[in-house]
Design a protein that fits this description.
The chain has 3 domains: 128 residues, Rossmann fold (3-Layer(aba) Sandwich); 152 residues, Dihydrodipicolinate Reductase, domain 2, CATH 3.30.360; 85 residues, ACT domain (Alpha-Beta Plaits). The chain contains 12 helices and 17 strands. Strand 5, helix 3 and strand 6 form a beta-alpha-beta unit. It is elongated. Bound molecules: L-homoserine. The site of L-homoserine (HSE) has 10 residues, from helix 5.
Length: 422
């Protein structure tokens, strides 16, 4: 029977679940795959772990772990791009396969690491870096190999989805919803990375690289966070038949990509619109299969560890996928080119001629108004919201329009702009 020795670095929430999972599933893997997975070394700065079933060694100097002669695969569950980056390079240079759940490491340093792995015929597994427990990366890499992927869209950040769901479905405040996401443990140590869209943008970069086989940097992804979304926008959207979700998109239009992660209105009856709280979802549209959707837990110790186990089994089955082959040059459109319908909410002085002024600026840009809503009940003091749904228009043009509208005397504060994703 083949025996594979594994070292784990990082013993936080995901690391601890991984120890549990690999020890629990050992017998099943032995009988189904004829492989013995042997967790024999753990890198832990604290020097101790809370699992009495682990009988191997503990190393407090994480960067010494790759030097061990008794290890075939290094599993990195530390996070960030500092020590984990050093660990990745050292692992590959010491001829160890490398498995990680770390999206920032893969999004930021993937190109360099894939080249290193390719030179040494080693495998890098990163299934857990996108969509937690959803086996989406292998589905794109292997399952949809015979199909050209036209687009994907989905929810890749559980924290943002949780907050928006709590606000929409349970009328919670943003602050209370964030606190509870942190308590439940799926927010990043610095939750601003979830809230401002960085986390979803990194995952979008990884999905795009695999979906479209091209060199993608996180800098290619337009992103925006959810902090500016207000309950009133959710109410207006509901009336129009839409829900606000933290959406990530990758569109391939004639070999030019359009990539982004931002809060968007999506029709209430779409699959994605009905995926709530911390759950993630990815819908992939390809030439031969049309649309397929994958939904599940995007974070958490056991779901993430389950994806890590998938990667380990890939290696146990002899898979060495050369991701450096996917690094072709590909054109990514500037987000200014993005064409879609728009929701604008303006807070204006309630006086005559305001709507005429606004309409004039919109007409001058040759843009069309699909809907305009003004409600007396939402008036406070002398200020009233006006909601305008613009027909399809380019990002660059709507930015100019917003600038001009914000300069009108009757318009107070900044304008809320939310994109529609059809
Ligand atoms: N912080 C991430 C999220 C989970 O909220 O989706 C790990 O990727």
């Amino acid at each position: 029977m083949q025996k594979i020795n594994i070292a784990l670095c990082g013993t936080g929430n995901v690391g601890s679940s991984f120890i549990d999972l690999i020890l629990q599933s050992k017998e099943k893997i032995k009988s189904n795959y004829n492989v013995e997975l042997n967790l024999n070394l753990i890198g832990s700065r604290k020097g101790k772990i809370n699992n009495s079933d682990f009988k191997g060694k503990i190393e407090t100097d994480i960067l010494k772990v790759p030097m061990s002669n008794e290890v075939d695969i290094i599993v990195e569950l530390i996070g960030g791009t500092e020590i984990s980056y050093e660990l990745a390079k050292l692992s590959l240079k010491n001829d160890k396969h490398f498995v990680t759940a770390n999206k920032s490491l893969i999004a930021e340093k993937g190109q360099e690491l894939f080249k290193l792995a390719s030179d040494r015929n080693l495998h890098i597994g990163f299934e857990a870096s996108v969509g937690g427990g959803i086996p989406i990366l292998r589905t794109i890499r292997d399952g949809l190999i015979s199909s050209k992927i036209n687009w994907f869209k989905g929810i890749l950040n559980g924290t943002s989805n949780y907050i928006l769901s709590k606000m929409y479905l349970e009328k919670q405040t943003y602050e209370d919803a964030l606190k509870s996401a942190q308590k439940l443990g799926f927010a990043e140590p610095d939750p601003s990375l979830d809230i401002n869209g960085t986390d979803a943008a990194q995952k979008t970069a990884i999905l795009s690289f695999l979906s479209f086989s091209g060199k993608i940097s996180p800098r290619d992804i337009f992103f925006d966070g959810i902090k500016h979304i207000e309950p009133i926008d959710m109410e207006y959207g509901k009336e129009l038949g839409y829900v606000i979700k933290p959406i990530s998109i990758g569109f391939n239009e004639e070999e030019k990509l359009l990539l982004g992660s931002f809060p968007a209105f999506i029709q209430q009856d779409e699959i994605i619109a009905n995926v709530n709280f911390e759950t993630n979802v990815i819908e992939v549209n390809s030439k031969n299969t049309n649309s397929t959707a994958f939904q599940g837990p995007g974070a958490g110790g056991y779901p993430t560890s389950s994806s890590v186990m998938n990667d380990i089994l890939d290696i146990a089955n002899g898979k060495v996928f050369d991701y450096s082959n996917l690094m072709r040059k590909i054109e990514v459109n500037n987000f200014d080119e993005f064409i879609t319908k728009r929701y604008l909410r303006l807070m204006v002085k309630d006086e005559s001629g305001v709507v005429a002024e606004i309409s004039k600026l919109i007409a001058e840009k040759d843009l069309s108004i699909d809907n305009l809503i003004q409600k007396e009940k939402n008036k406070t003091e002398d200020i009233i919201p006006i909601v305008i749904m613009l027909g399809e228009c380019k990002e660059s043009l709507v930015s100019l329009l917003i600038n001009e509208l914000e300069n009108l005397n009757q318009v107070k504060g900044s304008i809320q702009h939310i994109r529609f994703i059809e």
